[in-house]
Design goal:
By secondary structure, this protein is mainly β. The chain is built from one helix and ten strands. The chain is globular.
């Protein structure tokens, strides 16, 4: 299923735990994140917005891409898609996204024995 669309946060699990593990608990927000995805074949523009803050990445599935973390740090990583699920190895976690019915489901998993999986379910708006 195509990812293109605008989505609003519906539910999330382990948000604070995830931010604590990656050292960003100080940026916690109660605002509902809006995610906008533009897909043209394997090319994506992925943007997340809350009041006074926007984070965007452009990437191509099947290629190593230059990406930016939530805090503005640039890095390179391959972007893959298997079974309709996008996967990107960020610096401190693995990001995965997929469409389940008409919902955008994103997970971020930190490595190790005490790894945390943060899950967001977003409804189309």
């Amino acid at each position: 299923m195509a990812f293109t669309g605008k989505y609003e946060l519906e539910t999330q699990e382990n948000y604070e735990e995830f931010l604590e593990v990656i050292g960003l608990l100080n940026v916690k927000t109660d605002h509902k994140v809006v995610t906008e995805v533009l897909q043209d074949g394997n090319d994506f523009t992925w943007t997340q917005t809350i009041p006074n803050w926007t984070w965007s990445n452009k990437f191509t599935v099947g290629q190593e891409c230059e990406l930016t973390t939530m805090m503005g740090e640039k890095f390179k990583a391959p972007v893959t898609m298997e079974g309709g699920k996008i996967s990107i190895q960020f610096l401190k976690y693995i990001f995965k996204a997929e469409m389940i019915e008409d919902k955008l489901v994103m997970t971020c998993t930190t490595p190790g024995e005490k790894g945390v999986t943060f899950r967001r379910v977003n409804k189309r708006i």
